[in-house]
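Hi F.,

I've been meaning to write this up properly since the lab meeting, where we talked about keeping a consistent format for the predictions we share between groups. The idea is simple: the sequence comes first, exactly as it goes in, then the structure tokens exactly as they come out, then a line or two of notes. No screenshots and no reformatting. I'm using this chain as the first example so we have something concrete to point to.
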Amino acid sequence: MRPSDSPAADPTGRPDPTQGDSASSGSPRIFLIDDDRTAIALVKNILQKRNYQIASARSGREALERLRNTKPDLILLDCLMPDMEGFEVCRLIRQKKSFDDVPILFMTSLSEAGEKARGFAVGGTDYLIKPVDPLELLARIQTHLKLASIRSALRRQARELETLVKSQTQRLEQVHHGQQQLLVAPESVPEIQTAVRFQAAHEAGGDFYDILRLGEHQYGFLVADVSGHDLGTAYLTGALKALTVSFTNETLSVQETFFMLNNALNKFLETSQYATACYAKYHPLRQEVDLICAGHPSPLLQSMDGSVHPQDLIGDVLGMFGIVQCEQRTLPVQPGERLFLYTDGLIEPADASRTGPAGREEGIRLLSDALRISRSLPLKQAVDFVVDDLIQKNQGVVGDDIVLLGIEF
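Output, unedited:
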């Protein structure tokens, strides 16, 4: 970034665009921090056309001083400024508890992964590459303002409902119904052959799945599990649904999707809470699937001959750490092959003495055996057979929520 421009008057005769706030009452407030007068003017021009309230500062120190007495709805922050780097400005802003829920979007000409990771590590919410594309700028601001509103509403609702749960059990039924409404029917994406079995063990469960049409020739399949089984967990699955819609698209890689999911979850999950997830992104034209797992049971690929191949992906859970490391794999697939994503409730033994790695290995072996036996069945019948067979082998006990999602290519 070049040094700050001279404070001399704009040669066009227009007033200095960095001075003062726009006065559109009631609209979201955006605080812009950039030492480049031209960059500020360009961004202001884009945002004011959409009636955002804009305030700005041309140095990190000025920004921190002004933020003592005001709290915007979103901050746009330049990474490189002469008096104080944007990374340091972000770190100092995040030290203020009241700013935990304010999205901070970095604007930078740096595209290296290390610099992006550095921005997320100090509390950044997202980043935009300069020169900023107007449509991308507006889309990301709208997304993050919506997510901030969802987080605020979820926290408020969870607090209110927790105080009523003992005396108003009907609320659990409402929550259970709401969770069911979040789940997508496979028929909603008819061009891809999928089947799913969702079986809740609790009124307010943490298991979640989604089937997404990402573009004209891409599809996404997500299976996730939020820790806990209380009302707060149920509302977190709602947040996960909103985040999934925001961060799964045809342009983001599976690693970028999980990086952004983790960053968002890290903002509002309690210290002891986390989510595990497995995400498959299918490219029909290339006949490939991109796979990634975050502390979640790895998917199973089943060949036409019935043989089952565990993918053994490793990765950190989501929402507990500032930065996560998750292994990504691109897998070639053939017509007729099947991919299965599932939650750990399907492979956990009823006998508590058999829990742990050995118990899970036994559960995956039983799951693989059931898949081999059911290979000749249509996909929906195979999925139901597998779940029923494993529940029967588990003495009829459903100790945790179960999701089994099958995709036939």
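Notes:
The first helix runs from residue 37 to 48.
The chain has two domains: 29-149, 174-408.

If this format works for you, I'll send the rest the same way.

G.
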